[in-house]
Specification:
The protein contains 23 helices and five strands. By secondary structure, it is mostly helical.
């Protein structure tokens, strides 16, 4: 019989095809094309490396580690491959393996880009001195590498006459020659540096510039679409639907803990406290819930519930049968438990699961919802000072932040009305003022015994990849409570919008 198996003789053409598919946004097809290459060229470095990146981006670090390990075997001196392999091993709690690789990377004359990735790994692991040293090494390799400054600015407190500020200002003087992404990063770096140094006027001028540059890249975004999304989601998941579902479906006997709320609301603190308990393992900001909703839009498609699509909304309502919500629960548990095999209890810190609280309760009736809250002006101030790696297009305009907050607040009020007493409010200010009392309340709500390690959360050695990676390595501190009041004069649009919607 003739061999009809597909065979591609031109490896370069196959790799170009995979790259073209990725650039066209056809990520699944790109992955399939790369996997096909490995069928006849199992040691192809670009295919192994890019499949490692794909799987790491979706949070499957076990598979990513396998691809990067094979790439490392094919190119044992490639520092970029080693850096990604080290990061994957760190994600899998193999700190010794990650650190051993980092020594090899240093000896391989790495580029500034590789050193920055390594510095980020050290930061997430709480190894701040090693992170700073690595980023300084990157700047020695390339003093104008903005990504190194961006990594460094999150690790240090700047002083009034700091030489690093002067160095960044020299770089800022040639901002017109920098790529747009570097210009944005540099504005946020200088904003944070001047805020540390006590010059609020200069700080907020740089924050305003950085936010404006980023907002200009998001021309298609309209916060009104998100507001409509929330209104229509509330109409879809109402008391009638809850009554119709009752206790007819869902997976019982397991109680994953969902931490939901606004970014910068103290959620990383709550996650760190819970994951310090010997019975709890955090899966971080995993996408398991949204990946378990086969007939629902995910949170990144605002407007899906537009009024003109009432027929689709009705179809979705009709699809919420006991059998389907049970299938959602089973899929979520399979996806989440695959990330942390053998874990007794799982904590899921994907904050935007606040959109799906009703679905979580329908699919997993024993689930625990921990809602993190904080002074909205402090949340907004913190968000406006940060450049996020992707998504969250609403954080670059003060009025957009306030409108997003008000819509989210309306949705959470809806969930609390539908499920009275079933959502725990973990308030940041209260936790800061009464650490042990609130920790005990939180653990009791989650059905966990008290453990002293939860009070020493800052000693937890797990990877923390959020913007709070530095802060949660320190004991409780109170300097971030009502911080916005010092900068009231720079927050006019934000405060006006919040007050109007109160």
């Amino acid at each position: 019989m003739a061999n009809t198996a597909p065979h591609i003789n031109d490896l370069s053409a196959a790799l170009r095809n995979a790259q073209a598919l990725e650039q066209a946004g056809k990520r699944d097809e790109a992955r399939a094309a790369l996997a096909s290459i490995l069928g006849y060229a199992p040691a192809c470095l670009p295919a192994l490396y890019n499949l490692g990146l794909f799987t790491a981006q979706r949070g499957d670090f076990r598979e990513a580690e396998s691809f990067f390990a094979r790439a490392h075997a094919a190119a044992p001196q490639d520092s970029g491959v080693m850096a990604n392999l080290a990061i994957a091993r760190a994600e899998l709690a193999d700190a010794a393996g990650a650190l051993a690789l980092s020594e090899k990377i240093r000896a391989a004359a790495p580029t500034a880009e590789v050193l920055v990735r390594l510095g980020g790994m050290f930061r997430h692991a709480g190894l701040f001195e090693m992170a700073q040293d690595t980023l300084r090494a990157a700047l020695k390799t390339d003093p104008f590498f903005v990504a190194a400054w961006f990594g460094l600015h999150r690790l240090k407190t700047f002083s009034k006459d700091d030489a690093d500020i002067a160095a960044m200002e020299r770089l800022h003087a040639r901002a017109a020659q920098l790529p747009p992404d570097d210009r944005m990063k540099l504005e946020f770096c200088l904003g944070k540096a001047y805020l540390d140094a006590g010059d609020a006027a200069k700080a907020f001028a740089h924050f305003a510039s950085g936010n404006s540059l980023k907002r200009a890249t998001l021309q298609g975004f309209d916060i009104g679409q998100f507001e409509s999304y929330i209104d229509n989601a509330i109409r879809l998941f109402d008391k009638g639907l809850v009554a119709r579902l009752g206790d007819k479906g869902g997976v019982t006997g397991t109680a994953p803990i969902f931490i939901v709320g606004m970014p910068r609301s103290g959620s990383t603190l709550a996650d760190q406290i819970l994951s310090s308990h010997p019975d709890v393992t955090s899966i971080g900001e995993a996408r398991c819930m949204v990946q378990s909703l086969p007939f629902f839009p995910n949170a990144e498609v605002p407007g899906f519930f537009a009024p003109k699509q009432a027929s689709i909304t009705q179809q979705l309502t009709d699809s919420l049968t006991p059998e389907n919500v049970t299938a959602i629960g089973k899929r979520y548990l399979a996806l989440s438990q695959a990330q942390v095999p053998g874990a007794k209890r799982i904590a899921d810190k994907m904050l935007f699961n606040h959109l799906w609280v009703g679905m979580i309760f329908a699919a997993m009736p024993d689930a625990k919802i921990v809602h993190c809250t904080r002074d909205p002006a402090d949340i907004a101030l913190s968000l406006w000072q940060l450049l996020f790696p992707a998504g969250m297009p609403w954080v670059y305009d003060q009025r957009d932040i306030a409108r997003y907050y008000l819509a989210y607040k309306k949705l959470m009020a809806h969930w609390n009305e539908l499920y009275p007493g079933r959502i725990f409010e973990a308030n940041y200010e209260t936790m800061i003022a009464n650490q042990e009392t609130e920790t005990r309340r939180l653990l009791d709500f989650c059905g966990l015994s008290f453990d002293e390690s939860c009070l020493q959360f800052h000693q937890n050695a797990r990877q923390v990849k959020t913007a709070s990676a530095t802060q949660v390595r320190m004991p409780i501190y109170k300097t971030s409570v009502r911080k916005w009041e010092k900068y009231r004069d720079h927050l006019g649009p934000l405060l006006e919008t919040l007050e109007a919607g109160a």
